[in-house]
Amino acid sequence: MSGLCGWFNVAQDPAAAARPDTARRMAAELPQQQAVAFETQSRGLVCSAGADSWVAADPDAMLLAAISGRPHWSEPELAAAAAKEGDARALLSAYRKYGDALLQKVSGSFALAVVDEREDRALLAVDRMGIRPLCYAQTADGGLVLGSTATSVVSHPAVHKSVSNESIYRFFYFHVVPSPATIFEGVYKLEPGEQLIAEGKVTSRSFYWQPQPGASRSASSEEDILEAVRNQTRAAVARSAPDAATGCFLSGGLDSSTVSGLANEMTPEPIRVYTIGFDQQGYDETTFARAAASHFGLEHIEYYVTPQDVAAAFDALSTAYDEPFGNSSAIPALFCARKAREDGVTRLLAGDGGDELFGGNERYATQRLFEHYHKIPEAIRRYLVEPPVGLLPKDRPVLLRKIRRYVEQARLAMPDRLFTYNFLEMFPPGDVFDPQFLGTVETATPTRECRDWYQRSGDFDFLDRMLLFDWKLTVADNDIRKVNRMCELAGVTVDYPLLDDELVAFSLGIPANMKLRGRELRYAFRKAHENYLPKAVLEKDKHGFGLPFGEWLKSSDELRARILPAIDRFRERGILRNDFIDEMQTKHRHEHAGYFGNMLWLIAVLETWLASKSD
């Protein structure tokens, strides 16, 4: 991985002689700092760092361009220019020919910036699935500062570096800071498929690409759809071009097993695959990974992560991201990537995205069951169903408790009911946050943002609306960010064959009942590969690379010695109530270690991140 950064029309722009210093200071906050290159004009500068980022300039046209990622150009002329002179040159050619419409000519993973001084404008954009990030800030005088990380943006002297309390609240709600916000005041991330255009001192954002319902939902037979699933999946893996230096993450699930098996067919020697195990009941999935490795003849490497490993890696993990990142499954991703790098693997293929394209999460079936409740006329629900159900006991007997719980959840509209088990829905914010801190935030912001994201997909049916919601919040804001950064930290690159643009577009045309049939998840994908994948993988329940942090925190002295002091230091920040922190620690010890341990993880991560950025 690598990145780009720069600025446009910043009046307090450093003097020309200082520009390289500012650029290098910003580039130092990018994932990789080697091979820094920059191009400059009178009012703009773009900079790239790393092996897959490029910059170029056209002085006669007064154009600058930078691009990062693995872009694919649909026109042969642009593809030839990229192959011969680099993707930044192809970007310049595309801009000269098509202007902003160039975004219809490029696919794959990318973040790009074009500075057009003659027209007094700049164009920023990221790929359709948000694989490559791009952040920006508008300065007090209306200039634009950009960077692949939020920390690179705030490294520019014209951008004020101030942590946002609203985003700290978002972090505790989502465990990440979702786009378009960042952890810093006034710094924003582009969302998947989004562009920003700056014309003079005025900026505007819009989506150059948004998912559209498939046109052929009922035009094909089931067998035709299944054959297309097989062919499109194979083609997506082929476009990722696995070679002798490529490895795969292998959890033993449908996605990673399919990607690993197909990639293995495309390399001359057995491909190396990496699995993380846990010596903890209910968390270990190595049995399924071994079944897939044996079935396909893969070179299988396992590593069992220990509490001591987590303690040793915790500080590096917590400070590796440009924003606080609370998904503890980053730990197994890091150790997979480290093992791969030790073996000489320079690129990993990940299976992320398959569940969200093809309907593979249990909540899709659960929420569709709740959605049936809304088919009852509202007046009947409000006056004849909900009042008597509200009088039913909350505990026993079991049947009446389940009826009450069903109605309590089902009566909530989407997407609100997805978050009924969220900490900040289970515990009132006033019981969680220090009153002074709480007075600085709007607690309804996460709910409002989720509703806005969900409403974007209004033309889709219920299942696909859930999938598209997860494309943004689960895949782009969480999973991709997690894997990208852990691979960067380990020194390998990563690609996501199941997020291939053509496969994504194809998935939109699969009928909903071929994604979720009854309560059978991923019906079409599973059925299409029933003769390809081993039976154990086809029949396993979904789990993934979860981390048994809560259980280990109870038993590991090394882990407690790393985590508990961070929690104690966090008390001094005046963000959470001390009695709430005490309650979380008590509940962790005596009730549900996994659930309440997760809150302790968030606190320790945030404290470690904030302490590292205090300078």
Descriptive notes:
The structure is a single chain. This protein has 615 residues and is of the alpha+beta class. It has 4 domains: 3-207, Glutamine Phosphoribosylpyrophosphate, subunit 1, domain 1 (4-Layer Sandwich), CATH 3.60.20.10; 222-354 and 468-539, 3-Layer(aba) Sandwich (Rossmann fold); 362-466, no CATH class; 550-612, no CATH class. It contains 27 helices and 19 strands. Helix 9 runs parallel beside helix 25 (557-570) and helix 24 crosses helix 25 (557-570). The radius of gyration is 25 Å and the shape is globular. The model has no long low-confidence stretch (mean pLDDT 93).
Please provide a brief summary of the model.
This protein has 27 helices and 19 strands.
Tell me what portion of residues adopts beta-strand conformation: 15-25%
Poorly predicted ranges (pLDDT <50, ≥5 residues)?
Answer: none
Query: Could you tell me the number of beta strands?
Result: 19
CATH level-four homologous superfamily name of the largest domain: Aminohydrolase, N-terminal nucleophile (Ntn) domain
Number of domains: 4
Radius of gyration: 25 Å
Strands of the largest sheet, in order across it? 2-3-1-9-8-10
Give a short account of the largest sheet.
6 strands, antiparallel
Net shape: globular
CATH class of the largest domain: Alpha Beta
- Averaging pLDDT over every residue, what do you get? 93
